[in-house]
Design goal:
This protein is an alpha/beta fold and 414 residues long. It has helices at residues 31-38, 48-61, 78-85, 96-104, 121-130, 139-152, 189-199, 217-235, 264-281, 293-296, 328-331; strands spanning 19-20, 23-26, 29-30, 43-46, 66-71, 90-93, 112-114, 133-136, 157-163, 171-174, 184-185, 202-208, 211-214, 244-246, 286-291, 300-312, 315-320, 344-346, 356-361, 370-377, 385-388, 410-413. The strands form 4 sheets. Strands 4, 16, 17, 18, 19, 20, 21 and 22 form an 8-stranded mixed sheet that branches. It has an 8-stranded parallel beta barrel with strand order 5-6-7-8-9-12-14-15, surrounded by 6 helices. It has a 3-stranded antiparallel sheet with strand order 1-2-3. Strand 1 (19-20) and strand 2 form a beta hairpin. It starts with 18 loop residues before the first strand and ends with a strand. The model has no long low-confidence stretch (mean pLDDT 96). Bound molecules: pyridoxal-5'-phosphate. Pyridoxal-5'-phosphate is lined by residues 71, 73-74, 92, 115, 175, 209, 212-213, 249, 290-294, 393.
């Protein structure tokens, strides 16, 4: 509960997109002109310059020994993945479909890794043929991979995805620790490593992914330290030296009022210590981080148009042509426990004072179709553009686009 004396928390400043003549600019173009160029609303716009700037800032903050991979799951738009492929050291995929996107983007197969529970045999066959690293998540996967290798003569490259014996604290989404469908429990990994050796698979290392959307540097540091220690213990059971140690990611971005920006400096310092220890304890290992939303989330906007303005018993509703069918996460239905508002603005009235609390909704016949719940915005009329910030990750590909039969959103990279 917010105490009455304390001011209500606000969103972190969304100053990544410049403003000119009262309009938000994406890739140097105003929203009005961009909407005309796209030829429709709603659309998602991703800014190349911001993607590149984010990667450069991250490289500057982390030791050079750290390899940075992009987890395509966050945004699989082919043009964006193509741009990212030129910036990062590798791509992480989680399906045969994502594998195709990564290969089409021109990523060298040696720098692609494939994780995810319940991999189908066809997907594993494709991955072996492509020569990518498979993060094995069960004994069954290891055995099928050995069978695929025996039939084709192509030796499967494998790492073990470990379900650690700890959790990433303060994470938006926990994906390791306790009982989980992801990876193999740390206690069972020595047995799996023995089997991998007996099966003749090309063992390359470990993958640990504790969780997602974390804004606390201390929690991330603690998880990375524990992941490294666990990998050292497990390496004693490995059939060959560790070539790759994926320490996960989890770097978050500010979505909601009160969310800070993640402080990279202490994370960089801790990774430098880990890299120094690794250089003699796991001398052949590359250290990898895999990041999704942190790389792309802040570079994207979702833009929809106000169709109607309605006042219902004193509450103003902006009814737009966009909604949860395009942007499930902004509607609060993508894993949030308590619904909170994404940062938003009336993109063609940026100079104007923020004057009223409005509810931004979409055209779907469900009260869940809510993009902003009594958000303070500039006074808007039909024809104006609503922009939702922090929309570069988990947008269209994570939304129920067929729900209610409205047209899909367009995506552009500019
Ligand atoms: C989802 C996922 C990611 C990306 O998570 P972000 O929160 O977008 O950084 C990375 N690795 C694995 C294994 C994942 O499942």
């Amino acid at each position: 509960m917010t105490s009455p004396t304390r001011p209500a928390p606000v969103h972190a400043p969304m100053d990544q997109f410049p403003i000119e003549n009262g309009e938000l600019l994406v890739g140097g173009t105003s929203i009005t002109r961009l909407a005309a160029r796209v030829g429709q609303t709603p659309f998602y716009a991703y800014d190349r310059r911001l993607l590149t700037a984010r990667m450069m800032a991250l490289r500057a903050a982390l030791p050079t020994a750290i390899r940075i991979h992009y987890a395509i799951k966050a945004n699989p738009m082919p043009a964006l993945v193509g741009h990212m492929a030129g910036l990062v050291d590798g791509l992480d995929v989680a399906s045969g479909g994502e594998l195709k996107v990564a290969l089409d983007a021109g990523c060298v197969p040696g720098a692609i890794s494939f994780a995810g529970p319940g991999k189908r045999r066809e997907e594993m066959s494709q991955a072996v043929a492509a020569g990518v690293l498979l993060n094995v998540e069960s004994f069954r996967e290891a055995r099928e991979l050995a069978d695929i290798s025996a039939r084709t003569g192509w030796r499967a490259r494998v790492a073990v995805r470990v379900n650690p014996d700890f959790e990433l604290k303060s994470s938006g989404m926990k994906m390791g620790g306790g009982p989980k469908q992801f990876g193999v429990d740390a206690e069972q990994v020595p047995d799996l490593l023995r089997e991998i050796g007996q099966l003749g698979l090309a063992f390359e290392g470990f993958h640990l992914f504790a969780g997602s959307q974390n804004l606390k540097a201390d929690s991330i540091i603690e998880a990375q330290k524990q992941s490294f220690d666990l990998a050292l213990r497990l390496a004693d059971h490995a059939p060959s030296p560790v070539l790759s140690l994926n320490l996960g990611g989890g770097f978050g971005i500010p979505y909601f009022p009160g969310d800070p920006r993640l402080d990279l400096a202490p994370i960089g310092a801790n990774l430098a210590e880990i890299a120094a220890a690794a250089s003699h304890k796991l001398p052949k290992a590359e250290l990898v981080l895999e990041l999704g939303r942190y790389l792309v989330g802040e570079a994207g906007l979702y833009v929809c148009r106000v169709m109607d303005r309605k006042v219902s018993r004193g509450q103003v509703f902006l009814i737009t042509d966009g909604g949860m069918h395009h942007h499930l996460a902004a509607s609060g239905n993508f894993g949030q426990v308590i619904r909170k508002n994404y940062p938003a603005a009336i993109a063609n009235r940026m100079g104007h004072q923020v004057e009223e609390g409005v509810s931004v909704v979409g055209p779907l016949c469900t009260p869940l179709d809510l993009l902003g719940d009594r958000v303070p915005l500039q006074v808007a009329q039909p024809g104006d553009f609503v922009a939702i910030f922090q929309s570069g990750a988990y947008g269209p590909s994570a939304s129920p686009s067929a729900f209610l039969g409205h047209p899909p959103a367009c995506e552009i990279l500019i």
